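Field guide to reading this record: the first block holds the primary sequence, the second block holds the structure written as discrete tokens, and the final block holds curator observations. Each block starts with its own label. This record concerns F-box domain-containing protein, catalogued under organism Citrus clementina.

BLOCK 1 — SEQUENCE
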Amino acid sequence: MALCLLDFLCADVDLFPGSASAGSLQTLRLPRSEMSDSIVAQIAGRLSAVTFLDLSYCSKIGAPALEAIGKHCKLLVVLCRNMHPLDTADKLSQDDEANAIASTMPKLKRLEMAYHVISTEIVLKILSSCALLEFLDLRGCWDVKLDDKFMKGNFPNLKVLGPFVMDYYEMNDWDDCSDYSDGSEYLAWEFLAGEMGDYDDDDEIYEGMWDAEGRLEELELRFYDGIEEDAGIYGWPPSP
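BLOCK 2 — STRUCTURE
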């Protein structure tokens, strides 16, 4: 799957009507992708127009991939990089990922980093570097300690979710590995809804993927590891 994605994003070919190309993408969702840091480094240069990026549950990428994205995606305002608790349980620190975000993504308005092993210091660096930040998801980032008085005094317009929030994983003992990005994805989408407008039906949603010149603006690829019986429970489409 990662190779197919790489082929599409690296090639200016008419895979869709209207001369679609990766360079015109504004919204890109790749939860659970198996791509690596090296693949991201190859495609990042073709994603300069992306403003919304979902890399949740992509366990094979790290700080190098995020740094490459930050250097090339200068218009990025929403980054979803949530993880499953079991994927980060054996990690000592992911401060390098947070540092890559702080160092290269100053225009972020929404950042989701649920269940990352990060420190208070690196979160404060993100806050000081990303001055436009309006929402920060820190669910399950147990080592982060933010003083309420300090936050209200220095970041009055910032909403922080977590670290101590009872969510889907805690309520289900972390046993279910379903794609919780669905929930956070809708939250992130609502954040942009005022700028992008609402759509009334599927036809309009499809048309909304293309700009006035027929270029692809939105792409979503999902990667499922569960069996087909479980797919129906969570509203996923059946495997091909």
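BLOCK 3 — OBSERVATIONS
The CA atoms of residues 217 and 239 lie 25 Å apart.
Confidence is low (pLDDT under 50) at residues 12-20, 174-206, 223-240.
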